[in-house]
Amino acid sequence: MKVPVSLFNGFGEEFEQLLARTCVTQGLLPSPEEIKNKRFLNRSIVPHVERLKELFNRVQKFQDKSKDKTTPQGLDRYWQKGSNPENLRLAYFLSFMPGNLYRMSAIWSELSRLGYRWPDSLQTLRAIEFGAGPATGACGVLAGEKHAPLGLPAQGSFALIEQDRGTLALGENWFSSLQEWLGGSQFSTRPFHRKLEPEKSWLPRAAPRFNLWLMSFVLNEFEQSPRELAATLLESWERHLEDEGLVILLEPAMKLQSRRLLELRQEILLQAERVSMPLELLLPCLGHQSCGALAEPEDWCHEEVSWWRPPYLRVLDELTGLDRKSLPFSYLVFSKSKKPRKELLPAIAQAAHLHRLVSPAHRVGPDWEFYWCGKEGKRRLRLRAEGVELERGSILLNSEFRGDENASRIDRFDELL
Ligand SMILES: C[S@@+](CC[C@H](N)C(=O)[O-])C[C@H]1O[C@@H](n2cnc3c(N)ncnc32)[C@H](O)[C@@H]1O
User: How far does residue 132's CA lie from ligand 1's centre (Å)?
Assistant: First the structure.
């Protein structure tokens, strides 16, 4: 995925210091210098990162009903008291939060790259983040808007829903520190410490309407089927999402969780049509066609974005064996709008045919080879072209191609985005 250089470089030493100061203010770090201290990281953070890794794997196994019929022991005790909950929160905050924040800002920048602009009709931002953790998605929007603006109004608020009180408090503090550091906006946060029960409803009936709906690495923690999730989401969007409002769903890139998101996509589109809800899928697919990846039982679809990691994260990655140089993820962006996609994404307005690369592009002799997805589904292609930069996420406009789904060749295209 292409992102602006300033976003790529925006998470260096200064960002690290801001993180460290926030942790000190919250009583999670004894001093800002400790964020770089290998001994401290090794003793206080690494064991908790291991525990969180294990928990996320258990969630994945649980979702894979074919392999594991047990319930996700431990999910309810996510932030359980006992074995040093502060260090567990700190481990999530330092190890997992920054990558998710960056992924969210990369999605924001993709909207900006394709010309999406915040609707004039939505003069006050009313955002909500579900399972917000330390306000990760909200902070991703702040960073996205700084480096790749959509033109958000300067005023507004983010409602943060989270079941863990300590993480919520950390999120509020982090949001205001980051906002001050980035400058420009004056959004407030409204914390809601509560346990979501999507089997009933995402929001109480009396809740107000919002115009930005964020879910980052949270949908996969619920056991409802894609059909059930789609039904409760659509019911909530009917009641609690303003016309022209935007929905961003960010999920892990792994096969199982990604396929669940793709199934959710199909269900949302199907059910929205059934209840005549105007809903346009903006990203990553450039159409409402049936999913090219779901056509194969072993296939899935994800994006990937790279960045200049905060320096301490490189150290932490060495200690934990994780590698966050590039960040994979799956995502969907919807607009509750009657406007066609081409009006909402002007950069593709002129294209009769659109295809997005859904794999890396490799050199094979004089050709580029890659997979793309479009309204004919997913297929492997070759392209002979000099001086082009192709990567996962690139978009080709008005390609002329020949061959079948196993091997096609592009003869010409109008534009590469
Ligand atoms: C993997 S973390 C993601 C946190 C944050 N959205 C991010 O991207 O970094 C999942 C979060 O969802 C919260 N969560 C899970 N189930 C929840 C529920 N039923 N009600 C409220 N929060 C929940 C967890 O407490 C946790 O903070």
Answer: 6
Q: How confident is the model at residue 349 (pLDDT cuts 50, 70, 90)?
A: very high
Tell me the mean pLDDT in the region 185-189.
96
pTM exceeds 0.85: yes
Angle, CA of 46, 52 and 54, to the nearest 5°:
105
Pick from 93, 102, 104, 162 the residue to mutate for probing ligand 1's pocket: most ligand atoms within 8 Å of its CB: 162
Q: What is the mean pLDDT of residues 260-268?
A: 98
How close is the Cα of 130 to the center of ligand 1, in Å? 7
With residue 216 as reference, give the H or E element that holds it.
strand 210-216
Report the nearest-CA residue for atom 24 of ligand 1. Answer: 131
Helix, coil or strand: residue 190: strand
> 141-170 in b/e burial notation, b at 16+ Cβ within 10 A?
bbbbbbbbebebbeebbbbbbbbbebbbbb
CB burial of residue 107 (10 Å; 0-12, 13-18, 19+): buried
Q: Which atom of ligand 1 lies closest to the CA of 92?
A: 9
Q: For a ligand 1 pocket test, name from 78, 174, 200 the mutation site with the most ligand atoms within 8 angstroms of its C-beta.
A: 78
Q: Which residues line ligand 1 (CB under 6 A)?
A: 78, 96-97, 100, 131-133, 136-137, 162-164, 167, 195-196, 216-218, 221
C-beta separation of 371 from 334 below 8 A: no
Atom of ligand 1 nearest to the CA of 132: 6
Q: Flag whether pLDDT at 66 surpasses 60.
A: no
Between the CA of 72 and the centroid of ligand 1 the distance, in Å, is: 15
The predicted pLDDT at position 80 comes to 66
**Look-up: residue for tokens 């902070």?**
139
* pLDDT band, residue 51 (cuts 50/70/90): confident
Per the CB < 8 A criterion, the answer to whether 252 and 329 are in contact is yes
Nearest CA to ligand 1 atom 8: 216
d(CA 93, CA 221): 18
CA-to-CA distance for 211 and 208, rounded, in angstroms?
A: 10
Task: Tell which atom from ligand 1 comes closest to the C-alpha of 133.
Answer: 27
pLDDT at residue 68 tops 60:
no
